Amino acid sequence: MKKYTHAWLAFMAIKRLQYANIPEAYKADAVALVKWFKDYRDFVIKGSWYPDAVFKDMSTSHILKYRPNEKSTDDRFKKLPGTLGMYELGKSSPLYGKPFTIEDGNLADRCESLAHAIVDSFKILRMEEKGNPVAPTGNHIAMRFFILSHYIADCHMPLHCDCRAFSSGDNVHGFIETQWDNQVKKSYDVDTANERFFYDPEGYPLKLKITPLMQQVEDDLENREYLHGWGSGNGNVWDYMSSLSQYSYLMAYRMIPAQYDETNLTKAIYKTTEEWQHFEEYSRIIFSDAIDSIARVWLHVWIRYRKWATGKE
Ligand SMILES: [Zn+2]
Questions:
Q1: Which pLDDT does position 32 carry in this prediction?
Q2: Quick check: helix, strand or coil at residue 250?
Q3: 123 found inside a domain
Q4: Residue 154 C-alpha to ligand 1 middle, in angstroms?
Q5: How far is the CA of 144 from the centre of ligand 1 (A)?
Q6: How confident is the model at residue 192 (pLDDT cuts 50, 70, 90)?
Q7: Is residue 33 within 8 Å of 298, Cβ to Cβ?
Q8: Is 235 helix (H, G, I), strand (E, B) or coil?
Q9: Does residue 268 sit within a domain?
């Protein structure tokens, strides 16, 4: 995904935590997290783009790539919260329950370690005297949250979970991501000189003439039920991201059927396929799921720290 898509997804995750119907048990935590984030909103674009701009670990940590493989003994698909659109679609995929191999990437490990690093940073910040040079700052921790959002979002880009090399050939991967970034730039007012969004009175990206797709995602944010759990059988960020990558892989084969790879799919051919007709529908699902996941992971991380801070853990 591209820069403004990443930043927008992170912003929408904050918005979701503010406006979705968060269950009573987590409501106070969500309110506190949204309030905390508001001090750092100017860093969203920079932070959520740091992995691509500076870390450049695209070929390892931004991916978790699958390939259908009849010879593999690995055919277990994990569970996810039932509100995720990719999960629902994935279960009716012809590849669901079929053997696969994971051939590349460590995206789930990256997310798990970032989640730990954020909790650790909060603990250090709380233990050390104000101004102590070893203490991280709130700015630094907020950056880490936005960095984490990047890897979570990438997991929802189906081609990051698909072994077929669509960044090669006619670069259909880049083409899809450009479509998405254009939607964001058309719909929201970006202050490109200062690398931040202009804000509405609530502190969220100011809407221009919003596209139908972006409006649908905004509506989804408020209406979709928020389920805090990771999905049955998943106990942490790693499990959740690993499950997600499976359904993102199934989504890749829904968007681009198995007869295609980078050698025979051009942008022009893609636009003639039946699947292209569903591009907006799939994009809506991918975006809404990505926002939901970022919000879920962030809130879990925040709650883990808050429990420690209040002596409950
Ligand atoms: Zn990336």
A1: 97
A2: helix
A3: yes
A4: 6
A5: 15
A6: confident
A7: yes
A8: coil
A9: yes
Note whether residue 313 is domain-resident. Answer: no
**Distance, CA 25 to ligand 1 centroid (Å)?**
33
Closest CA to 145 of 172, 111, 177: 111
- How far apart CA 177 and CA 103 sit, in angstroms, is 23
* CA distances from residue 151 to 27, 84, 107, 160, 290 in whole angstroms, order as listed: 25, 18, 7, 10, 10
Distance 124 CA to ligand 1 centre (A): 28
Please state the pTM of the whole predicted model: 0.97
In whole angstroms, what is the distance from residue 156 CA to residue 150 CA?
A: 10
Placement of tokens 């740091």 in the chain: 50
Whole-Å CA distances, 273 to 266, 277, 292: 11, 7, 29
The three-state secondary structure class of 202 is: coil
What CATH number has the domain bearing residue 256?
1.10.575.10
How far CA 164 is from CA of 155, 258, 312, in Å, comes to 15, 9, 46
**What is the spatial distance between Cα 30 and Cα 38, in angstroms, rounded to a whole number?**
12
Q: Are 110 and 153 spatial neighbours (Cβ–Cβ below 8 Å)?
A: no
311, pLDDT greater than 90:
no
| Domain range for 36 | 3-308
Q: Is the dihedral of CA 243, 249, 250, 252 positive or negative?
A: positive
Q: Which residues contact 280 (CB under 8 A, 6 or more apart)?
A: 212, 213
Going from the Cα of 294 to the center of ligand 1, the distance in angstroms, rounded, reads: 14
**What's the CA-to-centroid distance between 23 and ligand 1, angstroms?**
31
Ligand 1 centroid–CA 1 distance in Å is: 6
The number of domains in the chain is 1
